[in-house]
Amino acid sequence: MTTSHTPMKRMFSRLAAATLVALTAACNADQLNIRDFNRPTIDGVAKDPNGIQILATGITDTERDQWFGMISDFGIFGRESYRYFATDARSVSNYLIGIAGPKLDPGGFASGNWGGRFQQMRNVVKFNDAVNASTLLSATDKRAAKGFANTFYALNVLYLIISRDTLGTPVEITTDVTKPAPFVTRDSAYKFVIGTLDAAAQDLQAGGSAFPFALHSGYTGFNTPATFLRFNRALAARANNYRGSLGCGAPCYNAALTALQGTWVPALGSTVTQANLDVGVYHIFGTAAGDTPNTASFSQDAQNYAHASAVTDAQPRTGGVDRRVERKVVALAAAVPSPGGFGIAATHRFDVYPTNTTSGPLVRAEELMMLRAEANIMTGNAAAALQDVNAVRTVSGGLAALGSLGATQAAQLDAMLYEKRMSLLFEGHRWHDLRRYNRLGTLPLDRTNHFVAKVMPIPQAECDGRSTKPNGC
After folding, report:
1. How far is Cα 281 from Cα 230, in angstroms, rounded to an integer?
2. DSSP 8-state class, residue 103
3. Residue-wise over 437-467: b if at least 16 C-beta within 10 A, else e?
4. pLDDT tens across 244-269, in order?
């Protein structure tokens, strides 16, 4: 799916242009008082008929523009992918070797996925300020708009705590930029995410039949308050499973199962097709002027390679191996050496995103079935989990159905994690899934001086800007 749409960085200039005619018409004797049209105020946005639309588009654009950096970083840490620049080895050395400790350099390549998340959270705060100040929106419209925006606020906090884990993260945007919000613990961050999603769900439920703005084609089927609520509940299921595996246990897994009932996950035991599994919410990309191509595509950026273990770990089937690997991974005509000799030669590339306009998923039904299988395993319902695992395994993987997931919960998790890994290759999940179930030690080390990072560091600039240093600085 592709639709050209305006990037966030042009949002304010467009808004200024939209109001220019009205402002010019209002000129009076003070016409030499030149206004800064590139810095519109909240009041100006709230009164502009196009203002809320431009801000909403900015939120979805900003979310998309951060997607590739996240799946690339998480893919390297999770030994799903390599990123090889022939003239720059830092995408290997900074991620897999690090500095003395070993640990990741807080001033290096592998300390990203930080500032952009807080900028997006600030975008949501400004969006909500404009919505609250609007004289053009009804009370129902305002509930719908805030439910939409706060879902993305929660998603960005979720990405932050996935990347920093035990180091914690701030979860607030302060009005005074000289007084940064404090860090909170991992569990507090997860509770904040879940609470914010639940509050956003209430707003969406009270948000009427339509949003007061349009969403792009990646939200087809999820572009009204009622249908966008299903996306919100999918994120709630994801967050509850994550928190469940980190100490919350059965209460969170049961909350995940409840949340999944409000999503588009296929009914347990129903017949599914690959088309069913691919239904979801997507980032869209384009090549028109001012748009953004999909840099996860090898056709756009021939630097992203598949880790060899995706092929060697693929389970066999009649006539080949796991169809997910056959479909998503392609052998190279010639091996590509690691820059600087810091890694091993790449022998395969991804075909998950065949073109630079291929959409990238935020959430797909295939993930939702794996989330349900996980929650059922962890609440003692392995029989239900087996149904979801086999549905995905046979349809997406072309593999024979399993008779059992295993006699122990650990074995059942291993079986589910294999299916989730292959189903969601290069979508940004494996590193965190293995970490939260204490399985990082199962990841391969390509060189004797490689290590597996447990967390991304707090960036050095963040540490330097705080008088009270958080854990990790």
Report:
1. 10
2. B
3. beebeebeebeeebbbbebbbbbeebeeeee
4. 999 999 999 999 999 999 999 999 99
